[in-house]
Design brief:
The chain is of the alpha+beta class and about 350 residues long. It is built from 11 helices and 6 strands. Among the domains are: about 130 residues, no CATH class; about 90 residues, Arc Repressor Mutant, subunit A (Orthogonal Bundle), CATH 1.10.10. Helix 1 packs across helix 7. The longest helix has about 100 residues. The protein is rod-shaped. The protein starts with 18 loop residues before the first helix and ends with a strand.
């Protein structure tokens, strides 16, 4: 509890009931307090209203606390020549109330926890009305020494309220401790789950790495297989070219064209060399002008297929037939990988 105070020696006085216990029994909380040099106690109104359940402190002060029992902090401290206490909670415009103002707010409170204190206040007032005064019972044990003040026993209602509040606080502390233990246990369980999850993630990562290594090995095998297949294709091409050359060597010299060819003479020569089918003739009609004009055929199979309306596979078969019968021969390959053909003129 923040309790700034500045008292002169002459202002010290003995209190029959400790003000901290008194306020604790009345409000159920340890409220901040300012004790002035004359011994009067003042309390932040917002703290008292919060503990008593007054949702609107301004209205509560206006309805239940007279102006002489409430002040702003700046006015109160200035009247005693004191400075405002340090701390963020002590503002210049903070409303503070006297002990009487606090009691008035307690009497206006409807919380069941305030009932014992209010009953004691009613008992005090009734006793004063009936007997003219109310006196606390003296304590069984009195302080020793000359001039020592009389010690008074705390009223039963106030003592019971304090005992009940302390018991409640102990229960709350125990519940808080249990909650903390449960929270710690839960955090431990969550940590264990996180560790298990991390272990599974690591195992999964290891499996993924192994799978990636296998995939890389499979890719290397596929590349090697493709290289072998390409080498076989080139070898087959060379064999086919050699067979074409052997066929040409067996032909008579007079069979070759001795004059610059034309499309018509080329087609006529091809018709004599082989039995022409419709597909072969369609391909021949397309490639003969190209071979005559350019001296070579570099068009990809897809281009010839598009111009003839035949499939790429069928175009390739027709070209092989023309090459087999020495109509054309292979002469390397183009930049795009397509085979290059020229007229086989001998």
């Amino acid at each position: 509890m923040n309790e700034p105070r500045k008292q002169s020696a002459s202002a010290g006085r003995h209190e029959a009931i400790d003000v901290s216990d008194f306020v604790y029994a009345a409000t159920g909380a340890r409220v901040r307090r300012l004790t002035m040099p004359d011994g009067n106690h003042w309390f932040p109104a917002v703290d008292v209203c919060k503990e008593l359940g007054h949702s609107n402190p301004q209205k509560a002060l206006s309805d239940h606390v007279p102006t002489e029992h409430r002040e702003s902090l700046e006015t109160l401290t200035g009247g005693y020549g004191l400075s405002i206490p340090a701390g963020r909670g002590w503002r210049r415009d903070l409303n503070v109330i006297s002990l009487q103002g606090l009691i008035l707010l307690v009497n206006a409170c409807t919380k069941p926890s305030c009932a014992p204190f209010k009953q004691w206040v009613a008992e005090v007032i009734e006793t004063v009305q009936r007997e003219g005064s109310y006196t606390l019972e003296e304590a069984e044990v009195q302080p020793a020494g000359p001039g020592a003040p009389i010690a008074y026993a705390m009223p039963d209602q106030v003592a019971e309220a304090i005992v009940r509040l302390e018991a409640r606080n102990l229960q709350l502390d125990e519940e808080f401790a249990n909650g903390q233990r449960e929270s710690i246990d839960l955090q431990k369980e969550m940590l264990a789950v996180q560790k298990q999850t991390l272990t599974v993630q690591r195992e999964t990562l290891a499996v993924q790495r192994e799978t990636l290594a296998v995939q890389r090995e499979a890719l290397a095998v596929q590349k090697a297989t493709l290289a072998v297949q390409q080498a076989m294709v080139r070898a087959m091409e060379r064999i086919a070219d050699r067979l074409d050359a052997l066929v040409l060597e067996r032909r008579t010299p007079g069979a070759y064209l001795s004059v610059p060819p034309t499309t018509e003479t080329v087609l006529a020569d091809w018709r004599q060399r082989l039995s022409v089918t419709a597909d072969v003739w369609t391909v021949a009609v397309v490639i003969a002008p190209i071979l005559v004009e350019k001296g070579e055929l570099r068009d990809p199979l897809e281009s010839i297929a598009a111009r003839t309306g035949l499939s790429v596979h069928r175009v390739n078969a027709c070209l092989r037939l023309l090459r087999k019968h020495a109509c054309i021969r292979s002469q390397g390959g183009a930049e795009n990988g397509a085979p290059v053909y020229v007229l086989n003129r001998g």
